[in-house]
Amino acid sequence: MGIRTGSEFIESLRDERVVYVNGERLTDVTTYPPFQGILATLASLYDLNHERRAELTFPSPADGAPVALSFLKAASLAQVEQRLRAEEIRAEYTFGLMGRLPDFCNAYVTDLAVAAEYLGQRDPRFGHNAIRYWEQCRDSDLCLTHTLADPQIDRSKGPAEQSDPFLTLRVVRETDSGVIVRGAKMLSTLAPFANELYLGPFMPRSPGEEDYALAFALPCATTGLKFICREPYDAGRSQFDRPASSRFDEEDAVAIFDDVLVPWERVFIYRDIEIFNTASHHTPGYRMLQALVRGAVKLKLLTGLAFHIADAIGRSSALHIQAQLGELVANTGMMEVLIHAGAQSAASDTHAALYQRSLAGALMILMPQFQARAVQTVRELSGSGVIMTPTEKDFANPEIAGYLDRYLQGKGVSAKHRVQLFKLAWDLVGEQFGSRQAQYEHFYAGDPYVNRARFYHSPVVQQYKALVTELLNGKK
Length: 476
Fold this sequence. Notes:
476 residues, alpha+beta, Butyryl-CoA Dehydrogenase, subunit A, domain 2
């Protein structure tokens, strides 16, 4: 089949999925008014693959049909760079504001397929399943969501120690056809608009928690699977009034499994704590590469916005403002250079070209810090400007338009353009959409303290300590 069009993607969502929003079960997610902005964006992303086919696709190994480059098992440094460029194009198309572009889960299942030998070391079925699933997603151009985290109930206890052992998704029983599972998982971003749900490893499991050590995939319209969404942030405002949230509100959901049957051919990890906890170490890291590329594009957006605001209010000549803006440029440039350096130094093995895991891990720590700094700079530069932002209808009212044009103009920019800048700033740093983005980015790669603590155990620490010992011992 190969790459789909936007209209084909929209049509694929008209199925029997169970999605609740604002207390209402949706009979057709494609007609729900708050979803129209993000649906149009997603459809245009599928059309983009056709418009820029040479840069965004490769021939399927199955039949030669063009398929998305985010499914490519890169076998060389050149192919890693090819993946990287495709990720950049699509991230730039959405300004880095979609943390769960379809590309991310495409990269996830490609990682899974590369790790097939590891997944199937004790039961070859699971490795074969991973490869077949990657092929299915690739050749059918499916849109995936994923859900990894356990419900946030009592984090002082493991999943088996909760008041109900089925609060977190776990095995109920086995059948000849597959595994029956029950419980909940979160946070499933893009769930209402996905064809498939992938559930994989995230929070480590301990001995005795085998029933929670699972990885599998299901169609989103599977019987017994329900998605309960958060309140949408797109309230039908115009792109002038809500330039980001009107187009890029991905939606998030908790996934409920009411005794759902997972067919054996869709299981990748089953009751194996060791493989569950270590599978990610045996992947090439394509999902991290996609996440880093997308994050770097968002940094560029925030940095560019900060410059525009400084210019519009006549503060660009102040040295301390230049220092703030220069810091953002340096941070953004550092991320971009290191991401590309990691791709250029990718190490090849028998299966794929592997992105530098240690570098990727370090960058995943730096990225949310740099983004938070950029958001804070935009906030500080904006001051009260983000509060006093008349609507598009205000500018269309002849009774007050003249006042707005006169009193809300900026340095060398019209009042309307200045207000547009501040509306974008408010959408990104103050509104529900922006607040969710800040929280999302902070925890994008998991608990930031856990991620930093992993480096505490890095082998290079001994080298650093040895330098101190050598100095104290008088070694020259």
